[in-house]
Design goal:
Blueprint lengths: L9 H10 L2 H20 L2 H28 L6 H25 L3 H37 L4 H24 L15 E3 L2 E3 L1 H23 L1 H11 L1 H6 L4 H22 L12 H14 L4 H22 L6 H13 L16
Antiparallel strand pairs: 1-2
Length: 349
């Protein structure tokens, strides 16, 4: 009897990926060096902020890489999922906050932000599922010719509809919260950590770990990976492709919405708030390799470090400069990204 094959863990797969990708080792070593420079010149607080931002960019990039890797869709409306999450969190948390002013409740004060974040993720999941069924499913049924270009144009169109529709309905006003928890920051030496930043980072890490466990340890997650590797083969063994596509898009949208909700104290909700997260998510995906979900997790922190480095030495208005230059250099030297692209047959789509 054939022995049961043990699936490699995330760490094992990541190390295997690294061993075969010297460019990844070089980039990670440079990033660690940049972290030391940031710690010396900007201080420990900025170092912590960089790590928190990296968790959020990783959460955004994982969803973008998932949609590209499984569905071959260059999702340029992914930032608008961030925007949806920010609005949902605002409209859910604001009544809770108002209620707490009149009727203080320690339990509700503690879990209120988490309720808003969960609502944002749930709404994002539903919106993603509806979007996939209404837009991409009919196109998939009609033709797969020119799929990448057609879906690119579709996602750009969806983004315009969402941005201008939100502006028409809710207006261009900024809606945000100064803080989710009314408590003083935690001081460790010279580092001041607000509860919002700690919680945002923890939620990002928990969401990424839970998602990876889902992909590697559940039947449905393995089906998603099978479709990403070989769509025709997955269909031949009985996997329902339409269900997998809808679930994939819904999960990606939910993760972006969760990022928007947890960063509402940094990025107030307004129609175009998703542009910056979209740009940085694309920097990550192109840097590490199209569709590479594992690489996107590491790449989120790499891009956050490059962003902070630019802010420190060139100013906030130039924060895109270093990430873009590094991305261009990587693509010139390693066209498939530092971890390698996992999008199969993209040229034929």
């Amino acid at each position: 009897m054939e022995a049961t094959r043990v699936q490699p863990s995330f760490g094992e797969r990541l190390m295997l990926n690294l061993r075969s990708r010297p460019a990844a080792w070089i980039m990670i070593a440079m990033t660690l060096g940049f972290l030391v420079i940031i710690g010396i010149f900007a201080g420990p607080s900025q170092l912590v902020n960089t790590i928190v931002t990296g968790g959020m960019w990783a959460l955004m990039a994982v969803g973008l890489a998932l949609v590209f890797g499984v569905m071959n869709i260059p999702h340029f409306a992914h930032g608008d999922s961030f925007m949806i999450g920010a609005y949902v969190a605002y409209f859910v948390f604001t009544p809770i906050q108002a209620s707490l002013r009149d009727n203080p409740n320690p339990v509700l004060s503690a879990v209120g932000p988490l309720i808003a974040w969960a609502a944002a993720a749930l709404v994002g999941f539903v919106v993603g599922a509806i979007m996939e069924k209404l837009v991409f499913y009919p196109l998939r049924q009609r033709t797969r010719k020119g799929w990448v270009m057609n879906t690119f144009l579709l996602t750009v169109g969806i983004s315009f509809v969402l941005v201008y529709g939100t502006n028409l309905i809710l207006g261009p006003n900024f809606r945000g919260v100064p803080n989710y928890w009314n408590m003083p920051p935690i001081v460790i030496g010279s580092v001041r950590l607000t509860m919002e930043r700690i919680a945002a980072f923890v939620v990002a890490i928990v969401a990424i770990v839970a998602f990876w466990i889902f992909l590697s340890s559940t039947r449905t997650g393995r089906a998603i990976r099978a479709v990403a590797q070989d769509e025709m083969g997955a269909e031949m063994v009985g996997i329902n492709l339409n269900f997998i596509y809808t679930l994939t898009f819904a999960l990606a949208t939910a993760m972006a919405a969760l990022a928007g909700a947890s960063l509402l104290f940094m990025f107030p909700a307004y129609p175009t708030v998703g542009l910056k997260p979209l740009y940085f998510a694309w920097y990550v995906v192109m840097l590490v390799g199209l569709g590479n979900v594992q690489g996107a997790i590491v790449g989120g922190f790499i891009v956050a470090v490059l962003q902070t480095l630019t802010q420190q030495f060139f100013g906030v208005s130039y924060e895109d400069v270093v990430p873009v230059v590094v991305m261009i250099l990587v693509l010139l030297l390693v066209p498939n990204g530092i971890f390698g692209s996992e999008v199969k047959g993209i040229q034929e789509q």
